[in-house]
Amino acid sequence: MANGPVIALDLGGSLAKMALYVPGDMNTRPAAVLVKAFQDYFVASLSFYSHIIEGYIFLFTAPISETIDVVLSFISDHHLPRSRCIPVLCCTGGGAHKFSRRLATRTRYDNVVTPHEIDMVVQGLSFMARHGFKQQLSTVSLTSDKEVILSPFSGVLPDLILAQIGTGISFVHVSHGVGKRVDGLALGGGTFMGLARIIAGRKLGFHEAMELAAVGVPANADILIGDICSFNSDYLGLNMTKLAAALGKCQGERDDAHIADAIASLLQILCFNIAHIAALNARLAHCEHVLFAGSFIGGYQLTQRYLSEALEWYFPSAIPMFVRHDGFLGVIGALSCDPNFADAFQSSMGDINFTDDKEMQEATEFVTWK
């Protein structure tokens, strides 16, 4: 295993995701100083101890449009390759190609490798499956009040459709641990943020937009079938409370209530479209499991609800699933390109197997480093 820190990057259209591996004992001063330095610069997320690679994996994000130079300068200033026998920087995502020249010249690494992001997402999913985290992967059911109920999944997934939702969306058929991109959609997180800012008439952050969506009522902004046909009608046997035209009632009002309703409608219709395309691909691939992942989900139950509700509508027998580290599968997979971890990650390949092995669960822990 590595005898010093290792970093991997996933540079998407909106976010830079970073995985920092620190071997062994976190109580050593160099390890503590390095992790603290990362936390001072970037947003920390759910980190964990990996018994497979005998160390801690810390996860961070930063807005890529504002901080790509900060990320590269940080890596260079801290000279992370200095303790490495084979100084390799593994970077995946579209930004790995967009910023390839800067990655090669500004990070002091002798070798920068840019593995395919789809392969890395699948590899990251396989790797996380081996840890046996409780609730790492969950299936979803909805109550009569549309409340999301997450149930831990344990078992083998030989085939599934993975909807990787970031700035844009890729649909991946994962079969026996191998992923193939089968479809895409240009209505993802980038669309949500762009239209949310237009609706609000000001610059919004992602979390603020999601908070507005959570208090908004889509039906106040949408035209429902009953608005057209009368709610007492049984026209075409349709449910009169179902959506006819998203945002159809909007008249351009800019008060807080109308903005929240419109952003809630926007989130809902994007999720409905994503789930529709996922359902079509699941039918074509004869898959009953559909896994929604990517930074756009971010653990928000409202997004999970809309995706699950729509998938149930378009493909009733399909099983919607969500993964706890939804935005970090690619960067975790990128660690697999590091020669120090090749054997550990190679043994993760094959069917996606989420174990409920108690011994493995006890050997793994989530950590918060302060």
From TrEMBL:
Keywords: ATP-binding, Coenzyme A biosynthesis, Kinase, Nucleotide-binding, Transferase. SUPFAM superfamilies: Actin-like ATPase domain. One of its GO terms (molecular function) is ATP binding. GO terms for cellular component: cytosol; nucleus. GO terms for biological process: coenzyme A biosynthetic process. This is Pantothenate kinase 4.
